[in-house]
Amino acid sequence: MKKLLAISLAIILTLSLTAILATACPACEAAAEVNTDEIRVILDGEQLEFDVPPQIIDNRTMVPMRAIFEAFGMEVEWDGNEQSVIATSGAGHFILLVIDSPVMVVSTPIAYLTDIAAPTDVPEGAEPVGFVRTVLLDVPPQIVDNRTLVPVRAISEGLNAEVDWCEDTRTVMIATIANESPVEPHEPLEIDEIQLEARYYFEQRLLPHIMFGSGSDIIVEIIVDELAELAEFNIRLNWIMAAATFALPDLSEILAANEPTSVEAMEEVLAILDARLLEEGFNAAAHIIDVTIEQIDDGINAIVVELYAIEEPLFSSFIAIVYGEDVGMRYFTLERSFGALPSGEIPYVLCFIAPGERGSFFVIENNKETFITAIAMVIYGNVQPLSTQPWQF
Fold first, then answer.
1. What's the predicted TM-score (pTM) here?
2. Which domains does the chain carry?
3. Per-residue b/e over 278-312, b at no fewer than 16 CB within 10 Å?
4. Would you say residue 260 has pLDDT above 90?
């Protein structure tokens, strides 16, 4: 956990983000007679006491950070050198803030999950991890009269609480609610064993083999020059070939009879293969949702492949082929886990594949934005995986 917090801090210190405006919250019911000159904060029916009164800065209610975190049962650490605040709970929930930074890093607590090969084999001294996400703040944490003030709404919602503001009584009403797990963005595919084998081969062996092998120069050119159409063509080309390898016994004959000599000819061959796959009940087009080129940071881009979910462990919902002159080529996946959350939802684990090995880092939300943010955390923080295993592709 300490390492993950340090990594998140490094990310915050390098990000330059523009805060977005929050929508106005619905008015709460008027309370009993109160002094409307002061701001009250009520958490689950109990009014909180502060050594410094809450105040409104740029239309956002700011409160002393230690008091609000401790009211939620969290431990608070202040780093004067880095001007950062870290609040943690024993369940693996943490919030990381930096003075004057509009970025807040939040981890929602879940059961510990690590080795994708043996998820119940927890390393000695390991701490829980959670769904890591970033939140943009309208008003950043700031020091006023020697006190660190933080936005009460953002903190509370980051801790899965509901927040209302009553203008008449100048009261912030906070109600804690149960944690909610992220949902999969698409209905999982129900596919046969051949498609499972083809999909796993494509994700775990074929793409890594190409990017770390003979196709590396082409991939670097695509990523550096941001050739989005060519990226999509190459990804879909390799997926169709992977599917045909497993589903079409006469693949070699088809290729011999339709030897491609240009991109246009290759597109015709792909159309033939796609039609043959459909005849065999293999809808190859249903597996890939989107292929884009995304910026990880200055000088670092990635081909990001979004895939339809499969209700089997180790299958990916996202793949990223990353390249930067300073970091080289990296291959990341976001894979469905063996383990389950207390709610019954299946979490997704950030994983990697490299020549000779593969491994896993930590659990994150199953969406593209969080996937890209987590990759940046791993690259810039030089994060070491929680688990590794030998792997040949």
1. 0.57
2. 2-176 (3.30.457.10), 193-391 (no CATH)
3. eeeebebeebbeebebbebbeebbbbbbbbbbbee
4. no
